[in-house]
Amino acid sequence: MFENRHAEWIERQAKNRSGESLRRLREGHSHNEKLFAEQIWWPVIGSFECLLAEHEVRNYRDGSYFLDFGYVRPPYKLDWEIDDFSSHAKNINRRNFDYEKERQNQLMLDGWQIYRFSLDAIKERPRHCQQFVLQVLGKLYGGASSQPNDIPLTSQQRDIMRMAAIVRRAITPSEICRTMNVHPQTARKRLSELVQAGLLEPASGDIRVRAYKLGPKAAQRY
User: Fold this and answer.
1) Same domain, 70 and 122
2) Looking at the structure, do residues 122 and 149 belong to the same domain, yes or no?
3) Which Pfam families does the entry mention (predicted)?
C-alpha cells in the first residue's frame, strides 16, 4: 500500500515541476526522507494530502530554499526537516553553518513553522516521532478546545477525536491501538462511546464496524 501511494504522490508532484525543482524532487527525496514518510507520516496520517516533498520556497534574494517536506494546510505552513548527524557533521563549515541559520530565520519570517527530526530518532524511536507529529497537528488543527455541544470527554476520547480531525479520513481501531498504545478492547470501547455520543459514526462494515469518521455533532467543531 505505502509503496504504491508514495510512488503516485511523487509522480503527481513531478508532473508540475521542471528544472531544479524537478531535479531536487528526483534526487533530494532519497532514503532518509522516504524513511520519514514510511515510518512516521504514513502510519499515523495515512495519506499525503497537503504534504509536498522537496518543496520549493522562493527567498528574498530571488533564489529558492528547498524543504524536506512542506505541509501547506491553511492557515499554517509547516516545514518537516530530516537531519542526519553523520552528513551534517561531515559537510558543515562556517559558510554552510551561516547559510542554515539565515535559511531558518527567513523561513520563520515568512510564516513557516519548522520541526526537525534526527535520522537516529526516526530509526530508533519511531513511535515517539509519530506522537510528536500528532501533537503538532492536533494543536494546530485539532478543533475547538471546548467540548462540542457540552459533551464531557475523557482524555482518551479527546485524543481519538483529535486524531480523527487531524487525518481527515476514517480511522480504524488498529490505528487507535498503535498510536495511543491501548488494548484493542479499550480502543473499540472508546470508539463505541463516541458513536453513542454522536461524535463519531461508522464509516465501513455492516455487522462489525471496521472504521469510524466524524459524526454530525463533531463535523462543525473539528
Assistant:
1) yes
2) no
3) HTH_20 (PF12840)
Specify whether the CB–CB gap between 51 and 78 falls below 8 A. no
- 42 and 95 part of one domain: yes
Alpha-carbon gap, residue 5 to 169, rounded angstroms:
16
CATH number (domain holding residue 149): 1.10.10.10
Of residues 138 and 88, the one with the higher pLDDT is: 138
Sheet holding 51-58: strands in order across? 51-58, 64-73, 76-83, 112-118
Mean pLDDT of 133-149: 72
pLDDT, position 148: 46
Domain carrying residue 157: 142-214
All residues at 6 or more sequence positions from 216 whose CB lies less than 8 Å from its CB, including other chains: 198, 201
Domains identified in the chain, total number: 2
pTM (two decimals) = 0.78
Q: Per-residue pLDDT for 147 more than 60?
A: no
Alpha-carbon distances of 89 from 24, 36, 84, 104, 174, rounded to whole Å: 22, 20, 9, 18, 39
* Residue 217 scores a pLDDT above 90: no
* C-alpha span between 5 and 9 (Å, rounded): 6
Q: What is the dihedral of CA 86, 90, 94, 97, to 10 degrees?
A: -30
Task: Tell me which residue of 28, 8, 128 sits closest to 87, measured CA to CA.
Answer: 28
Amino acid at 35: L
Indicate if 10 and 90 belong to the same structural domain.
yes
User: Are 48 and 88 in the same domain?
Assistant: yes
Give me the mean pLDDT over the 97-118 stretch.
Answer: 92
**Residue 168: which pLDDT band, with cuts at 50, 70 and 90?**
confident
